[in-house]
Structures are given as C-alpha cells and as structure tokens.
Specification:
This protein is mainly beta. It contains 3 helices and 12 strands. It has a domain of 160 residues: Alpha-Beta Plaits (2-Layer Sandwich), CATH 3.30.70.2660. The longest helix is centred in the middle third of the chain and has 14 residues.
Length: 230
C-alpha cells in the first residue's frame, strides 16, 4: 500500500487506492484507560484506535465492513484532571459477556475509584472502511454513506470518548484547526479486538505520537484472549 502526505499527515491509501475518510471529534473530557493500571484508571494522552472505532461505529455500522484506523491527530494540548467515579468490582467472564448470559449487579458491587482523565479534547480520525467477503457493495458506497451521515450529524447512538460519561461531538473535519506539536512514546496500546468463531484475540502495538499524530499500523502483535476474565 502506498502512502501520501496530506496536510502534514502521512496517510496510507486503501487497497483500491483511496485516501482514508476523516471525522473530527471533540469533547469536554475523555478517558482512554491504560490496561496495565488495574486499580486506578489512568488515561493515555491520546485517543486509542479501539476508541476511534467505537466512535465511528456509533455514527455508521454495518456487518458488511469494518474500520481500519490509519492515524489520529491530536488537535489540542494535553490537559489532565482527576475525578472519583462509581464502578463495579463484579466483572462478568468474557465468554458470558459475549453471549449475553450474565448480568452485572452494579448496585450491590459498587466501588469508587480515582480516574486521571483528559480535559477539553479534539481529534481527527483517519480510517479506511474494509469490506467483508460477504459485502454486496464496494468500499466507496460505504465511505459515501459515512460522509453523508457525518455531514447530517446522524448517529445510531451518541458517541463517547472512552467512557459513556464523556459524550463526543462529531462533524466534518475543520482543516483550520492544526494538530498539537507533540512527540512522545506512550507505550503499548490496544490495536484491535477480533472475535472469530470459537476464538477471540487481541492485537497490540508500540504507540508513538509524532508531531501531534498517532500513526496506527495495519496490523498489531497478536495475543490470545483468555476464556475467562476474573
């Protein structure tokens, strides 16, 4: 796949030679939790690819395609704050959660925890729409439908930034808003979760912000998910 510099961002083209679609999102706060910190929630300094996929799927989703995140531009300076949040200490096993056979009693198992969050955030998400083998339309048709929904402000459910308390605004990209000049290694980050028949797996990558842009590789390092999460 070839790459091209667009407005200072290095973007790889899709298999059919198209540049990624772009959606701009913003919000008053965000929490993209680091997985290595279990007790207290501490955010990454940037939106994760899995959170970006969640935002896009809230706007437009079909089983005929999936989103492949190419790059995430950080548009505002990194500012953090701490809050206490109500969470639950009762966690359903992953296999039961996927099947929908186990409910969590959030009242009986409520717990308060500190969370280090981001304040006043804005990002531009660059993503490809990859058709599934059973798709009945070309990728261009799904891209156009996503763009139309973004222009209208249509969504299936309100997008959020890492956690449902932090709702996101979305819209057409504002090219006058430039990315924040930040370069930093931010450690291992979740790339994607794949739920195949009979098997679930995660992919990870070494994340780095370069000049205010988080570049996401097409594939990550694969790790198998356990059947049960205690």
């Amino acid at each position: 796949m070839t790459t091209e510099i667009v407005n200072g961002v290095r973007l790889r083209r899709s298999r059919d030679g198209e540049l990624p679609v772009v959606v701009q999102v913003s919000g008053e706060a965000a929490l993209f939790s680091r997985p290595e910190l279990k007790v207290e929630r501490v955010t990454y300094p940037v939106m994760t690819p899995s959170a970006a996929v969640g935002v896009l799927e809230s706007i437009y989703w079909k089983p005929e395609f999936r989103y492949e995140i190419v790059a995430i531009e950080v548009l505002k300076p990194i500012r953090m704050f701490t809050i206490r949040r109500n969470e639950t200490i009762d966690v359903a096993p992953l296999s039961a959660a996927i099947r929908g056979t186990r409910r969590v009693d959030t009242v009986a198992y409520r717990d308060q925890r500190n969370a280090v969050c981001l304040r006043d955030v804005a990002y531009r998400i660059h993503a490809h729409l990859i058709p599934a083998p059973h798709a009945d339309k070309p990728a261009a048709a799904y891209r156009d439908q996503l763009r139309r929904r973004v222009r209208r402000g249509a969504c299936f459910q309100r997008p959020y930034l890492g956690t449902r308390e932090f709702a996101a605004e979305f819209g057409w990209p504002d090219e006058t808003e430039r990315q924040h000049s930040l370069t930093e290694d931010i450690g291992i980050m979740l790339h994607s979760i794949h739920r195949d028949v009979g098997k679930s797996r995660m992919e990870w990558f070494a994340a780095r912000i370069e000049g205010g842009v988080l570049y996401v590789p097409p594939r990550g390092m694969e790790l198998a998910l356990p059947d049960e999460v205690n």
